[in-house]
Amino acid sequence: EFYLQEIARQKHLNAFIEVFDQTAAHSAEILDRQVAEGKPLLPLHGVVIGIKDVLCYKDHLVSAASVMLENFRAPYSATSVQKLVDAGAIIIGRLNCDEFAMGSSNENSAYGPTLNALDNSRVPGGSSGGSAVAVQAGLCMASLGTDTGGSVRQPADFCGIIGLKPTYGRISRYGLIAYASSFDQVGIFGKNIADVALVLEAIAGNDQFDSTASSLPVPEYSANLSVDTPKWKFAYIREAVEHPSLDPEIRSALLGYFDQLRNSGHSVTPIDFPLLEYIVPTYYVLTTAESSSNLSRFDGVRYGHRTQAATDDLSEFYAKNRSEGFGREVKRRIMLGSFVLSAGYYDAYFTKAQQVRRQLNDQTQLIFNDFDVILLPTAPTPAFRFGEKTEDPIAMYLGDIYTVFANLTGVPAISLPMFWHSNGMPFGIQAMTNRFEELPLLQVSELLV
Ligand code: GLN
């Protein structure tokens, strides 16, 4: 009831596309009854969680913030959502985001943007902007987002909360409306590491419905967060911290913090990573290619918006359905992806980008042979103002420079709120460990925040 009141009170933030008030009340009743019957408390008993509007929850609407899927009802639950329910969580509603998770500012939603609660003239980040603001503004205790190229970490950074993208394959993608399947991963927003750890251990693990979900056992993250003050070996990418697009205040806060870590006995070493300038182009070639294929199913026949316009021609029917159903950014990416996959350009763009991805993976493994943790900024600037980048998609894409690295290589990464900018907005540090090393990542996060 408290959270339902808060959601109503802060409705202007536009964080929720739909509040599942009846489902939530019903879940609460069942949970209360279980307690009355003397049954033991579940791991997330009564924990109120919001989910990004790309995750299916059986019998509830799910739209990917798109006209294309308006009124689409999920016939089954995403594994991550089902596991939350099984662990006793109350799913309170579906959260606003950029259409089909494409964007960095939540300005691409068919339902209008979510507002950053700290400054309503600024973006909450994206694409999981609603999930970030819901936690930032206290509208739920934790939330799920998805992170294909930074969509959990960057909005967490813009809103001053914690955002974790686990290893690719750590959490099942079953029931997650795909953007780029070899990048997509469910992520978690929270206000402290213990909460994030608790949610992660509830939803991680193998799944017969997703062959890319790892069968590695899921550690008890929440019970093992504190370690005896080890001396960590940190690396940071020199080109990243020296990059001209990085806000000078962020740069000096980071460098100052590195000194602090050294003074506490940790090592912090700059490393060269000349591939940095290729990562945004590589990301946008590969993800648009995958999305053009994934989104081809929305033809208005099998799924999606169906035009009212009369036509006897099948191609025209498809074209009308898709032209009316998809927004600008989604269309731009489908066109770009179709282009890089087309016969004449496949080798020049798609094959080349795959080769770069391979090299990135190899070099990242070399870094983790010598270091425990890579530190990076999360974003080049704090939350920007609405409209500031809408006319220039390239400028928007370049803002993903620090986050797409972890998705290209599949490693886990977390954004931690640490500092305040002179413009009044928060910003943080991003930490990464090797694949499936979420436990050390959460442990080092406890040290850093
Ligand atoms: N900003 C990135 C993009 O627009 C990230 C999206 C995401 O992680 N879903 O593609």
From TrEMBL:
This is Glutamyl-tRNA(Gln) amidotransferase subunit A. Heterotrimer of A, B and C subunits. One of its GO terms (molecular function) is transferase activity. The gene is gatA. GO terms for biological process: translation. The active site is at K52 (charge relay system), S127 (charge relay system), S151 (acyl-ester intermediate). Its EC number is 6.3.5.7. Belongs to the amidase family. GatA subfamily. GO terms for cellular component: glutamyl-tRNA(Gln) amidotransferase complex. Residues 1-440 form the Amidase domain. It comes from Flavihumibacter solisilvae. It comes from the Bacteria. SUPFAM superfamilies: Amidase signature (AS) enzymes (SSF75304). HAMAP family: GatA (MF_00120). It catalyses: L-glutamyl-tRNA(Gln) + L-glutamine + ATP + H2O = L-glutaminyl-tRNA(Gln) + L-glutamate + ADP + phosphate + H(+). Keywords: ATP-binding, Ligase, Nucleotide-binding, Protein biosynthesis, Transferase. InterPro entries: Amidase, Amidase_dom, AS_sf, GatA. Allows the formation of correctly charged Gln-tRNA(Gln) through the transamidation of misacylated Glu-tRNA(Gln) in organisms which lack glutaminyl-tRNA synthetase. The reaction takes place in the presence of glutamine and ATP through an activated gamma-phospho-Glu-tRNA(Gln).
